[in-house]
Design goal:
alpha/beta; Aspartate Aminotransferase, domain 1; 7-stranded mixed beta sheet; 3-stranded antiparallel beta sheet; 13 helices; globular
Amino acid sequence: MRNIYTVNAGRTALGLALAALGLKKGDTVLVPAYTCAAVVEAVILQGLTPRLVDVDPKSFNMAPDAIRAALGPSVKAIIPIHLFGRPCEMDQVMEIADSNGLYVVEDCAQSLGSRYNGRMTGTFGDASVFSFGIGKSMTTGEGGALAVNNQEFVDRVSLLHDILPVPGIAWRIHVARTILAAKTLPHELVYSMLSTLAEHETGRADMLLFAKCVALAQDPLGKSSSSYEPMKMPSYCARIGLGQLSIVESLNAKRVANAIYLLGRLSAFGTLLGLPEFPRKGTYNTFTRFPILPLRVARDTVVRRMRDSGVDAEIPYQHLRLLLESGLTAQAVCVNARSLSERLMTIPNHPLLDQSDLERVCNALVETVGQS
């Protein structure tokens, strides 16, 4: 990665990458069906057509066989997303792309520092995008970056990046509020007072973004607008990012250590919980999220009970069904993505957790899934 461009969000980086590919309006881009709506939005805003491809039920990433089944004359690019820090099967993705003349834009929003067969994610495709929002591998408050690996696109990306506006005072206030919230919400007293409000606002924003994607997809005249404004990264966010970048390996190592503890502690409850696979030799999963599949108790019930006990369990992409029912799917029904949207949750895994925190998370989870 020799050419890096910093921006105000991961979706801005993805928009730049797609614009630089020079695809024609209506060309199809393959996107995993279990994903953040911002990815789909970025594709549609470039005048391209997203085709949702089903995912592997164990890795939660794009299933290579599903990619092959979704190919067609209009397909011009693939966006493999290294979800929760686990690398995609990039050997197979690149073989498919090379055999069919497709561009590859890696989404590394959750995988900065992850490795596939000893090689960093973000170094396989023509370009790769990163996100530095709260809860990612590292943070700048808000922000993202585009890495261009294919020299063919460097001049075009440089031009597109040069004309992006510099964020104004409203964006600066937004970033300051985001950083303040991230620093204060983890405190138990603050969490107990504000968690319900925060969860409501997060869920509402998630629903609105998925609904916006559906509206954009059904709006051939382009009357629906973007949910954000693409901008450069302000200098103060870049300064935060430089500090974070210097310690990102240690942050990742702490997440991995947490994940090893959680896997060991929860492995005895295999009849109650589906746990993530530990990566094979040569592959490094940073476990930016720690996904769980409750097997006997409904996912929403588990999340509610854990939150009531003060543990911040989450439901990723909780309004994904809006996309899966929108007609954008490559298969008639993306069975695995739909199942994950109804069953998968995540439990806390970040560098500030100590062993007592991890034990509290485990106890709350085991107690909850053990209830009938």
